Amino acid sequence: MRTFIAIPLPNESQVILDQMQQSLRTCKADVRWVAIPSIHLTLKFLGEVDPEAIPKLSEQLQEESKNLRPFELSLQGLGCFPNARNPRVVWCGIEGATDSLLRLQAAVESASTKLGFAPENRSFRPHLTLGRVQGRKNLPLLADRIAADSDLACGFRADRFHIYKSTLKPQGAVYTVLNTIVLNEN
């Protein structure tokens, strides 16, 4: 089954992301927007995983993250990958305790590579994908709106992460939580 590891977002953050997305949608650019409940902060995409491997993966993730504490992040600004002139992905940025986020991502990477998953060959760039550009229609207007809305912000607490199953459907991916790892409060 197709699997990834990510930090879920609280309802308050989803409301802000919905407002951001609604503002961007008014540009009528050719973008396939991600459903708000599906937006998450991806730590590691694993690809196809045998369902029988999930308990061992959960155990290894718990072990690798046992010394990590909850931390505060915030949604901060909008942008595009690779850039505003040639966008493929519209994203919302992540700020706050990014050093703690990087430690968590490194723990996830370590746990997964110990179990034989391929290490990530790109550096981790924390972001939330809001949409994927499908064509060139109204891209200058979209770029202007992204620049104008870049000061939106909303904080949230990262105190857990999930192993998700991703089921691809014609209307978009459906995510199911397979397991939750809670960060240690002590």
List the helices and strands and how they pair.
Blueprint: E1 2-7, H1 11-25, E2 31-33, E3 41-48, H2 54-64, E4 71-81, E5 89-96, H3 98-114, E6 127-133, H4 139-148, E7 153-158, E8 160-169, E9 172-182
List the main descriptive attributes of the protein structure presented here.
single chain, 186 residues, five-stranded antiparallel beta sheet, four-stranded antiparallel beta sheet, 9 strands, 28% helix
Could you walk me through the main structural features you see in this protein, from its secondary elements to its overall organization?
The chain is of the alpha+beta class. The chain has a single domain (2-182), classed as Cyclic phosphodiesterase (Cyclic Phosphodiesterase, Chain: A). The protein is built from four helices and nine strands; from the N terminus they run βαββαββαβαβββ. The chain has helices at residues 11-25, 54-64, 98-114, 139-148, and strands spanning 2-7, 31-33, 41-48, 71-81, 89-96, 127-133, 153-158, 160-169, 172-182. Strand 4 and strand 5 form a beta hairpin. It is globular and about 45 Å long. The model has no long low-confidence stretch (mean pLDDT 93).
Describe the structure concisely for a colleague.
The chain is 28% helix and 38% strand. It has four helices and nine strands, in the order βαββαββαβαβββ.
| Rg over alpha carbons | 17 Å
CATH architecture field: Alpha-Beta Complex
CATH top level class name = Alpha Beta
Mean pLDDT: 93
Biggest beta sheet attributes:
5 strands, antiparallel
How many distinct folded domains?
Answer: 1
- Spatially, the strands of the biggest sheet line up as 2-6-5-4-7
